[in-house]
Structure formats: structure tokens, C-alpha cells
């Protein structure tokens, strides 16, 4: 068994404000009104209505709203699936922004919209769609990345390799490695390490000790886990 991902949806009006911080979870910001100026690890961007940004765990970000303020739908989540979105630019996805506006309306009457808000985080991840598939991609064997991530999380005690992941996905190691670069924006082992680290962060946020977290997520020692979290 693994610790389930946690999610918090909020509708935030940044007003004429400034801030700077980092946190141990993914933060997804989807612009609804105005422009939120944000700088993540030295990389500046502006989140206007119809734009979005994912801040990865541990990334320091400075933000400020312009004179008239900014409104964003904000998702704080520990779901490892957002790792691939953090490495990509804001998607040109009308579905994502239509969904964000719908969820923003739901948050104004949460009791009547409990089901929508419950499934909202998963729908946002599905709607992100940073790289639309081409006609040739659609004929390829589909990789169920969330299912593959769950399979890996249950086997941190084993020395997993690209060949192991490829076998589960019913692909050759070279095919899987290329698909991972294409669809996740990173190498297969980097994707695996990001999952392991995200799981470790989830357990630490849940109050588990460093030693027990290291044991459950397959790190050689508590000090190796601490070093990875610091990096």
C-alpha cells in the first residue's frame, strides 16, 4: 500500500501583494482574472487569464500582482503525476481553463458541488495535456503512467531499472525510454527518481520519521534521503 496523494483546491485573490516562499508539494496556478507575476527559481513569468503554471516541490517562487490584482485557481497537491507538467510551459488547453472556471464557480457553493470538487484535482491533471498526440502517436501502445507509477511505488525495495518499467508497459527498453522523454519530458530513471522523491515527501509531510521514510522508499540510509530532499 502507499500513501494516497493529498489535494487542496482554493480560489485566491492576490490583491496588490508580494510574497516569496517554497513548499513541499506541487502548486498549480491557473489564471482567471488579472495578471500574477511569478518568478520560479529565477525564471520569470506572468500568469494571465487562460494561462497556468506548475511550481515543483522545493522551488522558491516570488510573486506579485499588478495594480488591479489577480485571481487564480490554486491546487496544492502531492500527486507525482504533476512532475511531468512542471517541466513544461503552460498548455494551450481550452478544456483546462473551462474546467478551472467551472471549479471556481463550484467553490462558491461547495455543498452543492461536493462531487465536482472531489474529482476536480484529477480532472485538472487529465486536462493539462501539454503535448497533444499526433495521428501516429495515437496508434502507439498507450502507457498508463499513473498505473505504472503505482506499480513502481509498491517496489521501492527492489533495484528497479528501465527494463523493468518497459516490461510492465509491454515495450522494449529503448522504446520505453523514448516514450518517457516524449511524454514525461525527462529520462526514464529521472522519472523514477522523481516518483521516489515525491513519495518520500508525502510520507515526511504525513509525519513519518526520516529513517522509516527512507526504509519505505528504498533509500540507502536516512542521510541519503535527507541529501536528496535538500537537493
Key attributes of the depicted protein:
six-stranded antiparallel β-sheet; DNA-binding transcription factor activity; single chain; Jelly Rolls; alpha+beta; Arc Repressor Mutant, subunit A; AraC_XylS_family_regulators
Topology:
Blueprint: E1 7-13, E2 18-21, E3 26-40, E4 43-48, E5 52-55, E6 61-77, H1 83-86, H2 94-106, H3 114-128, H4 135-138, H5 145-153, H6 162-168, H7 173-184, H8 188-205, H9 210-217, H10 222-230
Helix pairs in contact: 2-3, 6-7, 8-9, 9-10
Question: Care to describe what's here?
Answer:
- The chain is α+β, with helices and mostly antiparallel strands.
- The protein folds into two domains: 7-128, Jelly Rolls, CATH 2.60.120.10; 135-230, Arc Repressor Mutant, subunit A (Orthogonal Bundle), CATH 1.10.10.60.
- The chain contains ten helices and six strands; from the N terminus they run E-E-E-E-E-E-H-H-H-H-H-H-H-H-H-H.
- A hairpin with a 2-residue loop joins strand 3 (26-40) and strand 4.
- The model is unreliable at 130-139 (pLDDT under 50).
User: Unreliable runs, pLDDT <50, ≥5 residues?
Assistant: 130-139
Output the CATH topology of the largest domain.
Jelly Rolls
Superfamily (CATH H level) name of the largest domain: Jelly Rolls
Q: What's the domain count?
A: 2
Average pLDDT value?
Answer: 81
Q: Could you estimate the helical fraction of the residues in percent?
A: 40-55%
Tell me the radius of gyration. 19 Å
What is the number of helical segments per DSSP (H or I, 4+ residues)? 10
Tell me the strand percentage band: 15-25%
What top-tier CATH class of the largest domain fits best? Answer: Mainly Beta
What is the CATH architecture descriptor of the largest domain?
Answer: Sandwich
Helix-and-strand structural type: alpha+beta
User: How many distinct beta strands?
Assistant: 6
The rough form would be described as: globular
What's the main sheet like?
6 strands, antiparallel
Amino acid at each position: 500500500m502507499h500513501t494516497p496523494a493529498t489535494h487542496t483546491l482554493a480560489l485566491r485573490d492576490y490583491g496588490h501583494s508580494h510574497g516569496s516562499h517554497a513548499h513541499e508539494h506541487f502548486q498549480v496556478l491557473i489564471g482567471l482574472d488579472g495578471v500574477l507575476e511569478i518568478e520560479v527559481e529565477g525564471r520569470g513569468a506572468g500568469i494571465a487569464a487562460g494561462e497556468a503554471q506548475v511550481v515543483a516541490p522545493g522551488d522558491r517562487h516570488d510573486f506579485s500582482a499588478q495594480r488591479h490584482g489577480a485571481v487564480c485557481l490554486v491546487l496544492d497537491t502531492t500527486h507525482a503525476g504533476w512532475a511531468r507538467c512542471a517541466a513544461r510551459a503552460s498548455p494551450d488547453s481550452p478544456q483546462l481553463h473551462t474546467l478551472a472556471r467551472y471549479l471556481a464557480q463550484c467553490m462558491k457553493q461547495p455543498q452543492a458541488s461536493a462531487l465536482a470538487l472531489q474529482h476536480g484535482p484529477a480532472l485538472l491533471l487529465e486536462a493539462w495535456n501539454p503535448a497533444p498526440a499526433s495521428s501516429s502517436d495515437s496508434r502507439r501502445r498507450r502507457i498508463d503512467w499513473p498505473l505504472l507509477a503505482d506499480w513502481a511505488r509498491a517496489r521501492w525495495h527492489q533495484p528497479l531499472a528501465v527494463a523493468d518499467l518497459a516490461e510492465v508497459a509491454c515495450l522494449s527498453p529503448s522504446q520505453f525510454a523514448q516514450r518517457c522523454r516524449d511524454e514525461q519530458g525527462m529520462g526514464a530513471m529521472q522519472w523514477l527518481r522523481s516518483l521516489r522523491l515525491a513519495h518520500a515527501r508525502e510520507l515526511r509531510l504525513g509525519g513519518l520519521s526520516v529513517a522509516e521514510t527512507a526504509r519505505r522508499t528504498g533509500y540507502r540510509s536516512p542521510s541519503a534521503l535527507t541529501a536528496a530532499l535538500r537537493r
